[in-house]
Design goal:
Number of strands: 13
Structural class: alpha/beta
Largest sheet: 7 strands, parallel
Strand content: 15-25%
Shape: globular
Order of helices and strands: EHEEEHHEHEEHEEEHEEHEHH
Length: 329
């Protein structure tokens, strides 16, 4: 039987060596929990969890969630899945399997143990939205056969599985839809707009913008996001989600590029390339539900968070060799 939720718990974080996962591990250890981090290191990195190597309450298990996990834990956070287009399009079949088979495996584990399980879903379930900003009630506008479908539809199917397990087996679930997130420990070559722009600016390389740069995104600093995770997980079983977690302040890609060039003192110039297929024109969360049910909203302004992220990449730069460019989101 699972222990009480206000006690010290043994918590499984799948994808715990990834960008967001490692920050979640930070917070859970700070709270005094035991953490089992499972990651196959496809996009995660041991660098992100090196600081936990000798921590008495941290354990790392190299594992692919498309295979069952046979462990004993009190809670599960399922963050396992490549989340940037460069990575999830590299092996789209495996991406879909990670979302779908991975969900089946963590749900099966949670059902066997009778424990709460959290799904890190995504704003990509909304596709290229025709509703703006996006509320949780919006069903989305997703191309089911495009190059982004492995991720978009994989995450949509994972949500379906979570809610079917909830209805059929009364499983205690929490589902968060994550909007664009940034911060230290992002992969420098993941193809996401913030990391790409910062790396290009620090190297005085051309800033590559796909399309005309008028498309919008909303950027949430990773610490704010993780706080949202913890608050959602601490709610009662009557609150399942999905809940949007992201920063509602909207910026154009052109504005982001100018801000990063100014903050880095870069000599980079902007170049424009063709917009990839199915790239969303607008992305902005309506976080009314998170405010109401979690008393949560982001607190870290974009320039402050970008400053910390630029410092991280600047320190990393001497270790890196040249990587390709691009700014898919």
């Amino acid at each position: 039987m699972a222990r009480l939720y206000d006690s010290r718990k043994r918590i499984l974080v799948t994808g715990g060596a990834g960008f967001i996962g490692s920050h979640l591990v930070d917070r859970l250890l700070e709270q005094g929990h035991d953490v089992l981090c499972a990651d196959n290191l496809f996009t995660g990195s041991k660098r992100n969890i090196d600081q936990f190597h000798n921590h008495p309450r941290f354990e790392f298990m190299r594992h692919d969630v498309t295979f069952p996990l046979y462990v004993e834990v009190d809670e599960i956070y399922n963050l396992a899945c490549p989340a940037s287009p460069v990575h999830y399009q590299h092996d789209p079949v495996q991406t879909t399997k990670t979302s779908v088979h991975g969900a089946i495996n963590v749900l099966g584990l949670a059902k066997r143990l009778g424990i709460r399980v959290f799904q890190a879903s995504t704003s990509e379930v909304y596709g290229d939205p025709t509703v703006h900003p996006q509320t949780e009630a919006y069903w989305g506008n997703v191309n089911p056969i495009g190059p982004r479908s492995c991720y978009d539809e994989g995450k949509r199917c994972a949500e379906t599985l979570f809610f079917d397990y909830h209805r059929q087996h009364q499983l205690d679930i929490k589902v968060a839809r994550i909007f664009n997130t940034y911060g230290p420990r992002m992969h420098p070559a993941d193809g996401r707009v913030v990391s790409n722009f910062i790396m290009q600016a620090l190297r005085d390389e051309p800033i590559t913008i796909f399309g005309d740069g008028s498309q919008t995104r909303s950027f949430c600093y990773v610490d704010d996001l993780v706080e949202g995770f913890l608050r959602l997980m601490a709610t009662g079983p009557e609150i399942t989600g999905p809940v949007n977690l992201g920063n509602p302040n909207e910026f154009t890609i052109n504005e982001l590029a100018r801000t990063i060039v100014e903050m880095t003192g870069s000599k980079s110039e902007v170049v424009y390339l063709d917009l990839p297929q199915d790239d969303p024109r607008q992305r902005q969360p309506d976080i009314s539900l998170a405010k109401q049910t979690l008393d949560w909203q982001p607190t870290i302004e974009l320039e402050k968070g970008l400053g910390w992220t630029i410092d991280y990449f600047r320190a990393l730069l001497p270790e890196l060799v040249g990587n390709g460019s691009g700014n898919s989101t």
